[in-house]
Amino acid sequence: MQTNIQTELQEISGKFAFSLNIWTSSVVKAYIEIIVHFINKDWQLQQKNFRFVKIEGSYTDKILANEPIKINEIMIDNTNNNNILIYYLELWAIGKDISFSTNNYFHCFVYVINLSVQAALKQLKNKIDKV
């Protein structure tokens, strides 16, 4: 399946975007899912699981290593690990003579809204507790 997706990505003329899901299980095992979003040669929007792996140790500098990719943008949450990921991705791109700007990523809007709501609820709870 991985080979089919890579072949399909090589056949498209446009760029594609990645979204990442990173989480830790209840037994402290870390996992990452890399989802690729693109428009195929038939002009159909595609969203496919590009990679799903268990992460051993530090993962930020190895996620996209040695992948022949054309990155348009990356959507991430605002954890520090993702900021480090962008830094290492930029170094990787420079080493491969690939044009990459750290401006090509943005934080997931839904995640930012969730953080805002959580902060507001916390303040509201503090005020209610005082009553």
TrEMBL record:
Subcellular location: Nucleus
Keyword Coiled coil found: no
Presence of keyword Metal-binding: yes
Major site of localization recorded for this protein: nucleus
Keywords recorded for this protein, A-Z: Metal-binding, Nucleus, Zinc, Zinc-finger
Domain of life from the UniProt record: Eukaryota
The protein's name in its UniProt record: 8599_t:CDS:1
